[in-house]
Specification:
This protein is mainly β and 216 residues long. The protein has one domain: Regulator of chromosome condensation 1/beta-lactamase-inhibitor protein II (Methylamine Dehydrogenase, Chain H, 7 Propeller). It is built from no helices and 14 strands. The protein has a 4-stranded antiparallel sheet with strand order 3-4-5-6, with no helix packed on it. The chain has a 4-stranded antiparallel sheet with strand order 7-8-9-12, with no helix packed on it. The chain has a two-stranded antiparallel sheet with strand order 1-2. It is globular and about 45 Å long. The C terminus is likely disordered.
Length: 216
């Protein structure tokens, strides 16, 4: 991103590059800046397996690419070839400060520290001959898919904790609880998390301002 503008490249057969087509690109291609994102510069982008999210300075969330299981947060399964804003009402009209895109699910954190997740809730296990359902851990205490952004109940987050960032990785989550502590919270926490890219891709991490939280 340069001066609030977004560039994309790589696999584009699902429209995840946001260029209005399904072509691949071997070089960075301009997606857009303020004009394409509701008049606000882009602060961060998150790339999933086949969909993409972006957060703007105004605190709005945008998504595009494959829409299966509602991973884009638009209350449908439709694909989007260009950045499309996720309705603010689904977040209680709060501003978004961090977002993450996984293989078939997404997550976001609001300015008030509320965690929202959506997308695929369960899937058939690839290695299970009996096709047992494998929970993906959207954090809602059930295996249902969520077509719209859905807040994770505070009681499931050990009551009074405030979230500052979320990481959605592979569809497979580690069976061992993962713990992580954020030592340097800030008004823009996602921009100051050290080693963010080095987070183990088969685990889901939840960073908090106060104490360690367990998420499987």
């Amino acid at each position: 991103m340069i001066d609030g503008g977004l560039w994309a490249w790589g696999h584009g057969l699902s429209g995840q590059l946001g260029l209005g087509d399904t072509q691949n690109s071997l070089v960075p291609v301009w997606v857009g800046a303020e004009e394409e994102f509701g008049g606000s510069p882009v602060l961060m982008a998150a790339c999933g397996n086949s969909h993409t999210l972006a957060v703007t300075k105004a605190g709005t969330l945008w998504s595009w690419g494959v829409g299966d299981d509602g991973r884009l947060g638009h209350n449908d399964d439709n694909n989007r070839l260009v950045p499309t804003q996720v309705e603010a009402q689904h977040f209680g009209r709060a501003k978004i400060v961090s977002a993450a895109a996984g293989e078939s699910h997404s997550g976001a954190v609001t300015q008030h520290g509320c965690l929202y997740t959506w997308g695929q809730g369960t899937r058939v296990g690839e290695e299970d001959e009996e096709d047992h359902q494998v929970p993906l851990g959207l954090g809602h205490g059930d295996g249902a898919r969520k077509l719209v952004t859905t807040r994770v109940a505070p009681v499931l987050l050990q009551r009074a904790l405030q979230c500052v960032a979320v990481c959605c990785c592979s569809a497979r989550a580690s069976a061992t609880p993962t713990r992580c502590r954020l030592h340097t919270p800030s008004p823009s926490p996602w921009a100051t998390i050290p080693g963010w890219a080095a987070v183990h891709r088969l685990r889901r991490l939840l960073l908090t301002t106060a104490k360690t939280v367990r998420m499987c």
